Amino acid sequence: MLTLVTGGARSGKSRHAESLVADAKTVLYIATSQIFDDEMAARVAHHRTGRPQHWRTEERWQQLSTLITPDNNPEEAVLLECVTTLITNLLFAYGGDRDPDSWDFAALEVRIEQDIEQLIAACAACPSPVVLVTNEVGMGIVPENRLARHFRDIAGRVNQRLAQAADHVWLVVSGIGVKIK
Predict the structure, then answer these.
(1) What is the CA radius of gyration of the chain?
(2) What structural domains does the chain harbor?
(3) How far apart are CA 180 and CA 169, in angstroms?
(4) pTM of the prediction?
(5) SS3 at position 154
(6) Catalytic (active-site) positions
(7) 86 with 94: CB under 8 angstroms?
(8) Residues 128-165: tens digit of each pLDDT
(9) Cβ proximity of 19 and 172 under 8 Å
(10) Dihedral angle at the C-alpha atoms of 21, 23, 28, 32, nearest 10 degrees?
(11) Distances (CA, A) of 45 to 35, 101, 154
């Protein structure tokens, strides 16, 4: 069973997603963040200490289908945090060292879509309940810079695809989860 949890920044998505897997005997927590500065290191450390001790944590944003497999224990829930960070990592990995103003965003999106389709297939084949957390990035103004506009568009389309594939979708606003599918 695939569940998608979405909402704005600091909306309570993570807490809601964690509540959805709270009754599982164990949880495989997949953290997609990369640490590039002290602020991110502090955020990751805060999240690490806040997780229950019986949860397994894998810090990875590539080859997720090696973690979400048909061989997973059905009694161990999978919680992936977060798809938006995953998209960011993929965008910069595929964009390479070139200036983002020179990126071919259509080509990058095709590659990201392939990764997302692999993630969806892995989730569908996995006997464990899987919860994906993502940010809803399309409810604000149109960003001024090109990279931010393309990121918002790609993330929005990825979220639509994930919501379509999910059995359940939750929107979290001000700490309150509303089941929308």
Answers:
(1) 16
(2) 2-179 (3.40.50.300)
(3) 6
(4) 0.93
(5) helix
(6) 47
(7) no
(8) 999 999 999 988 888 889 999 999 999 999 999 999 99
(9) no
(10) 20
(11) 10, 33, 29
